[in-house]
Amino acid sequence: MRYLLITVLLIGCGARQPADKEVISSEKAPAAIGPYSQAIRAGNTLYLAGQIAINPATGKMIEGGVEDQTHRVLKNIQAVLEEAGFTISDVVQSQVFLADLNDYGVMNGVYATYFKKNPPARAAVQVARLPLDALVEIMVTAVRTK
């Protein structure tokens, strides 16, 4: 009886196993340029590192303005999502970092073509500088509900 009581107390006190944690890496997205993972899956949630406009085939920043860079960033995001079995429609939150907030309208126009229905919650801010002097960086969180 004493052992049963201890077991019940442990279960009732929230003793639970941590969620599975898996590193996600896609060759169709640029390799990390620092000590971080492209994404981490914890349970049914996927946390993607910020993506900038690096061409995964060359490892170099693409040429072009914020419109071209936003397309490349979102393609990189899609590649990592797909590697983990997620889709763009699973994205529930995004954070957009712009080198110049005057580029917000152009970025927003491209962004809207990827998130056509039920877009995620989002924040967009101007930052002092981005890695490799990128014009835009986007990070997202996705949740698979099915």
What does this molecule look like?
By secondary structure, the protein is an alpha+beta fold. The protein has a single domain, classed as RutC-like (60s Ribosomal Protein L30, Chain: A). The chain is 27% helix and 26% strand. The chain is built from three helices and eight strands. The protein has helices spanning 2-12, 66-83, 104-114, and strands at residues 21-24, 39-42, 45-48, 54-55, 60-61, 91-98, 121-126, 136-143. Strands 1-2-3-8-6-7 form a six-stranded mixed beta sheet, with helices on one face. α2 runs parallel beside α3. The radius of gyration is 19 Å and the shape is globular. It starts with a helix and ends with a strand.
CATH class, named Alpha Beta
Strand content: 25-35%
Main sheet properties? 6 strands, mixed
Which topology does CATH recognise?
Answer: 60s Ribosomal Protein L30, Chain: A
Discrete helix count: 3
Domains (count): 1
Shape, please? globular
The separation of the N and C termini measures 41 Å
Relevant terms:
146 residues, disordered N terminus, 60s Ribosomal Protein L30, Chain: A, globular, 8 strands, alpha+beta
List the helices and strands and how they pair.
Blueprint: H1 2-12, E1 21-24, E2 39-42, E3 45-48, E4 54-55, E5 60-61, H2 66-83, E6 91-98, H3 104-114, E7 121-126, E8 136-143
Helix pairs in contact: 2-3
